[in-house]
Specification:
elongated; Immunoglobulin-like; 2 domains; mainly beta; five-stranded mixed sheet
Amino acid sequence: MRAFLLGVLALAAGAAAGGCSGGAQARPGPPVLLEVLWQSAGARTLIWSLDADAFVAPVVPAAATEIDFVFDRRLDGNRIEDSDGGVPVPKANPPITVDWAGAATAMSDPPLAASVFYNSVGIFGADTSYVLMRPQVVGFPSGTTIRFGLDPAGLTSAGGEPFEGPTEITVATQPLSIVSLPTGGQTVPTGFLAPVTFSTRIDVADGAAAQAPFVHVTAAGASLGFALLAAPGDRMLLYVAPAACDGKWPAGVLVEVTFDAGFPDAFGRPLPAAITGSFTTSTTGAATDAGCD
């Protein structure tokens, strides 16, 4: 029932923009952290709660778009965000930070950065407010325990009273997975770019040097040349393309694309098991060989 109510409240708040520091008059007393919600694919999942009987998800999708920290009353928004001509902007040193073990040695390119804002609109209940963290590029590392640090000096009442609650909250993300790829051998043009969608960020750069060794493209047992291309505007999608030397797959063949276990996400976290997709190329307008020396 709690999850249902939160979903209804979230829908009702669709028009409430992040970074809103207005709202009703704050009531006195130290703010109490009530719950923390992980938002992915438009759904919010409870990852921490003051209520010991609440169901807290043990693992969440890595592709979070927002994390909401809900308090029982208004906070001092000036300690959470700055203003540029009335427009909320994140502080250089926000009161909520994120990291994980190994972040200093295995980081995405560009590095993960998150903006922290304050919203005083009580969408999670009367008098509540929340602090929201949004990754500037969607996606956290797969199969990893994510740590959020909460600074009591930055999360206070209007009178400067620090919040009550834990100063560190952790949540585990799901292992890397492939959400969709061509399967079933459907017939496609010989210049087909095979789309592959992952469960979190896949940063394809420098000729896909980090990913290409874990990908194999074959037809009738013979290897085919290929390239991995980034999808503009979507870091969780890449395309498997014919090798750049001729730009086409062989005609009239079943092409199989295999991603080996170990294929890394943007943070170096591995795909736990191999997966293979396939498609069949058309017999018209094709090159005879997609291999490159």
